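Chain A, query sequence.
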Amino acid sequence: MYFCYNANNNDQIMVQTKSKTYFLIISILAFSFLLLSFKSKKAVKVSNDPEFLIESDEWVDSVFQSLSFEEKVAQLFMVAAYSNRDSSHIKMIADLIVEKKIGGLIFFQGGPESQAKLTNYYQSLSKTPLMIAMDAEWGLGMRLDSTIKYPKQLMLGAIQDDQLIYEMGEQIAFQLKRLGVHINFAPVIDLNNNPDNPVINYRSFGESKINVARKGYAYMLGLQDNGILATGKHFPGHGDTDSDSHKTLPIINHSRKHLEEFELYPFKQLIDQGIGGIMVAHLYIPSLDTSKNKASTLSRNVVNDLLKEDLGFKGLIFTDALNMKGVREHYGPGVINVEAIKAGNDVLLFPENMDQAIENVLKAIENGDISKEDIENSCKKILFAKKWFGLNNYVPVEIDGLTKDLNDIDGKKKNIELVESSLTLLRNKNDIIPLKRPDTLKIASVAIGNGKTTTFQAYLNNYTKIDNYCISKNAGSTEFDTLFQKLNNYN
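Chain A, predicted structure.
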C-alpha cells in the first residue's frame, strides 16, 4: 500500500482504496497461479468435487447392501479412542465396534506403537472396516509422543514459499498412512482476526484471507495427493470470537455479507479445489440462523443451505466434537445427534452415549423428522471414502520399525526447513543483524520466563562467546534492575 502525503484527505483515501483493490486483484491472480504451481503427483481433475466421490462402485454397493438399516445409521458415528488408557477403555471401544457397528474412530493421546496395535485390534473386530481420524494439525506430535511436531500454523503463515507447506502435507500424509490413519482434521482455515480468541490464534495461518486460503490449499493438496482426506475447519469461521466453543457457545455477530467477504473466503477456495472434508464449528451466528442459541453444527441454514447448496460442497461434513459445551450447553445428548443429522452433517464426532444416540436417530426416522434417504446418502458417501482409503483391501499396520519410520530423516529435515523459512526479522535497528565481526562484540543473551538457560542460549555459544542470563517470569523490580545494570556492560 502507498500513501499520497501531500494530497487532501479525500485523495489520500482514494489512493489507499485503489491500492487495496490492486492488492486484492494481484493476490487473487497469485492464488490462481498457486493452483498450478505445486508438484502435485496427480493429473489435473476435470471436476472440483472431492476425489473419493464416484458414480458407482461394486465394493461400496456390496457393503451397503450387507448392512441393516441400524448398521447404516451406525456408520455415521465416530467415537473417541485413546492409546494411553486402561483395559476398560479398550473393552468399551471394542464393544461399540462389535455390538453397534460404528463407522470409525478418532484417536487422541497416546503413543504410535500402542495406537497401531489398537488400530489392528479394532479393525479385526469390525464388520465394515473403520475409518480412522486424528487431529494432526501440526503432525502426529499434536497427539502422540515419540513423533514429529511440525510448526503450528501461525508460524507457517510467515513462510513465503507455499511449496514447503505442500511438502509438509506430504510428510504428514506419509506418517498418518504408516500409522493406519485415513483422515486428518486439518487444515485450520479460520482467520486469526480476533487477538482475544482463546482457541484458534496460533492454530490459524494468520489474519489475511488470501494467505490463509493459499496455505490451506497447499496443506490440503499435500495430504490428498497422498491418500489422506483433508478436513477444513471450523466452518463457517471460528476466528473472530473471544470465547472457546469447548467451554461455551461463542457468538459471531457479523453480517452475512461480512462473512462472505472474509470468514467464508478460504472455505470457498478449498471447496472449489476439491477438499474432501469440512468440519462445522459450534457457533451462534444470528445472521445465518436467528433461532436462539442454535449452534451452527445443528443449523440446517448453516450446514445444508450455506455449505451444501450455496457453496456446493459435496464431500464429508463432520460435526465438531458433540461433547463440547458449545453444543451441549443448550441441547441434551438425545437431541444433539438428531439435530446434527437434520442439519445435514454426514459424520457425528464424539457422541456421548452410543446406545441413546442410535435409538434417538431411529425414533426420529420413525417420526419423519429424519428421512431414510438422508441416512443412506451419508452412509454411501462414507463407504465411498472408505474405498478411497483402500479399506476394500485392508492391510494391518506393520508394527516393526514404526517409530523409526515416523521419525525418518526426511521428516526431520523438512521440519528444520519449515522453521528456517518461517523466521521473520521484524525490526533491525542500526542493521545489527547479521552480526558483523562478532569477535569484536560483547554479547549477552537474556531468557525471560523459566529462570534457566534455554536450548537456544546453549546453541549460541557454538558460534561465538556469549554470556547467558535468565530471569524468572515472577521476578520483582529489584531483580530486573540488577539485570539491567549487568547488561550495561554489553554492546
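The longest helix spans residues 9-37. The longest strand covers residues 229-235.
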